[in-house]
Amino acid sequence: MAHESPTFSPLYRQIKNLIVQALDSGEWLPGQTIPSEQELALRFGVSQGTVRKAVDELAAENILVRRQGKGTFVSTHQDPRAVFRFLRLKAVNGGPVLPKSQPLECLRGKAGQEAARNLGIEPGSQIFIVRRVLKFDGKPVVIDEMYLPGDVFQGLSLEMLKEWQGSLYSLFESRFGVRMVRATEKIRAVSADRAVADVLNVQESTPLLSVERLAYTYGDKPVEWRRGLYSTAEHFYINELS
Amino acid sequence: MAHESPTFSPLYRQIKNLIVQALDSGEWLPGQTIPSEQELALRFGVSQGTVRKAVDELAAENILVRRQGKGTFVSTHQDPRAVFRFLRLKAVNGGPVLPKSQPLECLRGKAGQEAARNLGIEPGSQIFIVRRVLKFDGKPVVIDEMYLPGDVFQGLSLEMLKEWQGSLYSLFESRFGVRMVRATEKIRAVSADRAVADVLNVQESTPLLSVERLAYTYGDKPVEWRRGLYSTAEHFYINELS
DNA sequence: TAGTGGTCTAGACCACTCC
DNA sequence: GAGTGGTCTAGACCACTAG
C-alpha cells in the first residue's frame, strides 16, 4: 500500500503542523493556554500520546511552554525573560540588566536587492527601516538597523516605537500579530566608523561585533532583517554549543 | 510515601545517567553501537519506552545518534561532518571547505588563576598550552590557543599534533579517551596585534572575533579552555536562535 | 476535588537495514 | 526473515495547580 497523501509525514508531525496553523491564524494568542492534550486528541481524532509528541517538539522549539498542573501556553515576547532568547548579550561584570530601547528613526523606503532576497519579497516593495540604540544601565551598547516588510507592519511609526514600553518583538506581537519564532545570525568583526562611534560612545575604528539577523515567524516566513553593531568593551555575545 | 532516594529524579533520567556513566567508563566507544533498546530495558529492569525517552534526550544532546534499522551509536568526532558542530564558521562565498589544522606550539606550563578556575583544577597544576592555526583552502583564518589539564592529556606533544590527520577533538577522543560533548563560547570583537596579524595575513589592528570557549566532557566536566581569534574577512560565525 | 501535564508501562504495527 | 529504531495507541498512576 503506497502513501496516498502528497506530503507524507508521521501523524504527530501532521498534528504539529495543524497546531502551528492554528497559532498562525490567531486562534490562540501569545500568553494564552491552548486546549488540553485530551481536547486536542479529541479534536484531531488521535491519541493523547500523539498530541503529546507534537507538543513536545513545539515546546523544544520554544513555540509553546508547558506548565505542569496549569496547561500549555503560547510563548510570548511579553515575558521580560524572553528578551534574552534573541539577545545573546551578557555583561562582563554584574548581573543581567534589562536593556532599554531608544528608537532613532523610522523611515519608509523600497526594498533593494539584498533586503528583498532576505525577506522573500519583490525588489522595490514598500519596507520600513528602523534604527535604534540599545542601552544597558544607561550606556549605549548596541545600534540596530532593521528592515521590515511594509505590508506586515502597516502603520508602524517612530511615535509608536517611542511610546512602547517593552521589547520590539513584544510590540510586533501585540500591534501587528507577528510573533518571532526563530532566527539565524551571521557574526563578523568590523571597525566603528565616526557616526557609529559617536552613538556608542567609543573611539573611532574600535572593533565591534556585526550581527546580521534574519528572523522568522510561523511557517519559516522571514519578517525581519536586521544588522546590529555591538560594543563589546563591557559585554560579550554568549553561545552554547552541543 | 516520601521519596527515599537522596537525589530523586524520574526513572528515565536515572537511566540516562546510567547510560552516560557507561559511556564515561568507556564501556561503549565512539562510533560503536550501544545495546538495543530491548537489551537496555532488560539490563535496567524498565520498559522499552522508558529507555527510549532516556535515549531521546541523549540523541537531542548529540551524545548518541540513532539510525533506523541499524541501531543507536555513540557520537564521534571522527566523522568529518562533526567538525562544524563546534566550529561555527562559514565561508562568505563558496561551499563548506574542511579546515586544516597547523600546530605551532605545544608547551608544558602551570595553570594560572583564570585557567584553574575555568578548568576546575588547582592553580599551579600542570597544563598543556597548544597554539595552532586553522587554514581554509590554504588560507589562515583562525589562530587558537588552548589550555588543557595535564593529568588528562598526559603524553601530548607537538609531534603527535603534527602527525595527526583529522580534527583536534578526534585526536583527543582516540588518544586520550576524552570526548567533547558540549561547550560555551563568549564572543567579542578585538583588534589584531602585530604578531597575530602576521599569522592571519591581515593588516595590524584589523578587527577580529575573539571566541573564548570552555568545552566539557561527560558529566559536565570542563577539559579544555581555549581562545580563538577569527579573521572574518571572508568568513562569518553562524548561529541559530530559537 | 477536579483538571492539567509528567511518567511509566505494554503491546501492536511500520520502516529500514542486513543477511 | 530477523532485528533495529519509529510510530501509535490505551490505560494507569503521580505531581502540581487552583478553586
UniProtKB/TrEMBL annotation, chains A, B:
Keywords: DNA-binding, Transcription, Transcription regulation
CDD domains (UniProt xref): WHTH_GntR (cd07377)
Protein known as: GntR family transcriptional regulator
InterPro entries, alphabetized: Bact_HTH_transcr_reg, Chorismate_lyase_/UTRA_dom_sf, Tscrpt_reg_HTH_GntR, UTRA, WH-like_DNA-bd_sf, WH_DNA-bd_sf
Organism: Uliginosibacterium aquaticum
Domain HTH gntR-type: residue ranges: 9-77
